[in-house]
Design goal:
Blueprint: E1 6-12, E2 16-22, E3 27-31, H1 34-45, E4 49-55, H2 62-70, E5 75-78, H3 80-90, H4 97-111, H5 121-147, H6 153-182, H7 184-194, H8 201-210
Parallel strand pairs: 1-4, 4-5
Antiparallel strand pairs: 1-2, 2-3
Length: about 220
């Protein structure tokens, strides 16, 4: 008799991993450690796993998802709102981490979100540069708004900070462009985007960083 396919839900916290399956049968809490992850992957690779689903949790999921994908397990990282909406629609609102893992497993079995390839180290590094650039641009915008209402000594300090932010944004633009041009795949996509009128270097690199699959189809 063929074993039923398992859909695995994992609720990730800084210190713990709660794991559940659909159909029910697997339910446990592990320490969020390298040793526990290795043990969990070993167990899941011996089971008829159709899909492992975890929520995006501000980067806490990256190590686990990457290691599972490298081990050949089908992994999907989903927006937590999707799981919450599913819980509301089915009347299964989780109140504990273990119940949350069970809800994620049920979501996996019912919705079957698409497995996507995870970004490699280069892509994550580029994304971090782009995120930092966006943060500095936002800070500069806020400082410019403050400048319109400032006077005296604070005004000079704000101007100095705006100049520093502009310089740092320029440095990040150079670093982002260098990262794109250092990759043969991204460089090809960058060259393709050059042919589109009105798209400058900064816009091209931001597009590639935010849409790494651009031009891959």
């Amino acid at each position: 008799m063929q074993e039923a396919s398992l859909f695995i839900g994992i609720d990730i916290a800084k210190e713990t991993l709660d794991v559940a399956s659909s159909p029910a049968g697997l339910s446990r809490r592990l320490l969020h450690s390298e040793e526990a992850i290795t043990e969990l992957i070993g167990e899941l690779t011996r089971c008829p796993v159709s899909l492992v689903v975890m929520e995006a949790t501000g980067g806490l999921e990256t190590r686990l998802a990457s290691r599972m994908a490298a081990a050949g397990l089908p992994v999907a990282v989903v927006n937590p709102r999707q799981v919450r909406d599913f819980g509301k629609a089915t009347g299964k609102l989780a109140k504990t981490d273990q119940l949350d893992a069970a809800l994620i497993a049920q979501f996996a079995a019912a919705i079957r979100p698409q497995v996507r390839s995870l970004p490699d180290d280069e892509a994550r590094s580029l994304a971090a540069l782009v995120k930092r650039r966006a943060e500095l641009v936002q800070m500069r915008m806020q400082e410019k708004l403050r400048l319109t209402h400032a006077s005296g000594a604070p005004r000079a300090g704000i101007k100095e900070h705006i100049l520093w932010l502009t310089e740092r944004i320029g440095q990040l633009d150079v670093a982002i462009t260098a990262s794109v041009r250092a990759s043969s795949i991204w460089r090809t996509r960058d060259d393709l985007l050059k042919a589109i009128p009105g798209i400058g270097q900064v816009t091209r690199t931001l597009l590639i960083a935010r849409l790494p699959e651009l031009g891959a189809l």
